[in-house]
Structure formats: C-alpha cells, structure tokens
Amino acid sequence: MTGTSGWREFIGNSAWAEIDPTGTAQGRGEPQPPFQVAPTEATPDIQLPEPPAGFGLRPFREVLAARRSRRKFTEEPVTLEELSFLLWATQGLQKVIRGGVATLRTVPSGGARHPFETILVLRSVTGVAPARYRYAPSRHGLLRTGDIPSTGEVSAACVGQDFVACAPVVFFWTAVPSRTEWRYGPASGKLIAIDAGHLCQNLYLACEALGLGTCAIGAYDQELSDRVAGVDGDSELVVYAAPVGRPS
Fold first, then answer.
1. Is 112 exposed, middle or buried (0-12, 13-18, 19+ CB in 10 A)?
2. Alpha-carbon Rg of the chain, whole angstroms?
3. What domain count does the chain have?
4. Residue (of 133, 219, 116, 227) closest to 173 by Cα position
5. Domain around 180
6. Is residue 232 left, alpha or beta, with left meaning phi > 0 and alpha meaning psi from -120 to 50?
7. In this predicted model, what pLDDT tens digit does every residue of 62-110 receive, in sequence order?
8. Over the chain, what is the mean pLDDT?
9. Could you tell me the CATH number of the domain that includes residue 202?
C-alpha cells in the first residue's frame, strides 16, 4: 500500500461486504486464538494492587475539558497504584466469555476480539525495577520480559521524540492480528486501527483523572519499535505508543 490512493483505500475500505463466513477461521470452525499472549496460569512477577478508594474520581466533565497532550514530565516516579489504574482503564478484564476464549474489557472492541497487548517500558515506578514488562490482564499483573531499553533506543523507535524516552512509563500497544482476523478476515486492519483509538483515549482520560499526563505517539519506526517491545513484527507488532508521567 503506497501513495495517497493506498491510505485512502484503507480508510474507505468496505471489506465488510467481502467477508465470506466460510472463508474466515471462525467459519472454518478453527479455535479462537488465546485472548492474551502470556499464559493465563502464569504467576505475575508483579501483582498489581487495587488502587485506593477515591482514586480517579475527578468529575468526568472536568476531565474531558482538561484533556491535553502532555510532552514534558517531572522526574517524580509514577506509583504502582497509579500504573495499576491506568492498566485497568485501558485493558482491564471485566469478564471472560465464550468458554474462556474471549473477554469483555474496559474498552470496546469489534466483536469483543480485543487484539491488543500492552508492553511497558518502566523507567521510574515506585517499588518496581526498571525493565520491560508485559501486562497480563487475566491476573492483573506484570510479567518481566526484558531489560530496560536505553533512552536512545526508545527515542529512535519513536523517530527522535526524546520526550518519550525520558518518561517514567512508556506504553507500547501491540496488535495480535489473528485475534481479529479469526472473525473479520479482510476487514481486520481497519477494525484494529479503530480499536486502537479506544485504548489511547481511555489512557488520556485516566491520566487526567489522576493528575498525570500522556501523549499519543503515532509516529514510530516499525522495526525499531517491535525490537524495543520484544515482539516479532509479524504475529505481534507495535501499533501505538504513549509516554506517561507527571506534567511539569
């Protein structure tokens, strides 16, 4: 897909009419892909706490009015309770359905496919060793997946946006396309792009409710971002990013 006509074709995709129920994995009777990459029985390296009562209860109208992209952060760390709230707000699992292979979450997703995984670069979170982690929604915990990437690596992955690399927390959302393709076949790309917006908007609003800041990052180097996130770029690939910290 190249040139203006390519992306316009993507946005104007009407592949819904092309979906042949017998041509999708669902139509062929194939099992659904797992709803998370991490094993559901895995014990988290970090069990996330429940945020204290009253967390994030800033009036909703006020939160909407205050929402901005924040690109400057203090050096103050994010607390584990705050991170827990942000993860619940963006990917929190509310109910496992359809015999244990699908979920209902705090964000909408076409057909409840929820194709996303959350990879975190944690540089400064209270009580947490700096490293790369994967969020495990089934256990509301974090699994350590690698050492902390350097600020240079993160900056390069985000095409030189240094403020991302310096943030206490960086969200890298990856997509597992097979989850959506299982049901929607040729329409999956457009649906995944739409669903990504739901995730980041929830992060914006949750950050504002806590007095934190974030900025959606759509400009990134695919290969470098996949490397920073520790994914293969095929069965799982980065589709969005966002730094989080206390606005300066």
1. middle
2. 18
3. 1
4. 116
5. 3-245
6. alpha
7. 999 999 999 999 999 999 999 999 999 999 999 998 887 789 999 999 9
8. 93
9. 3.40.109.10
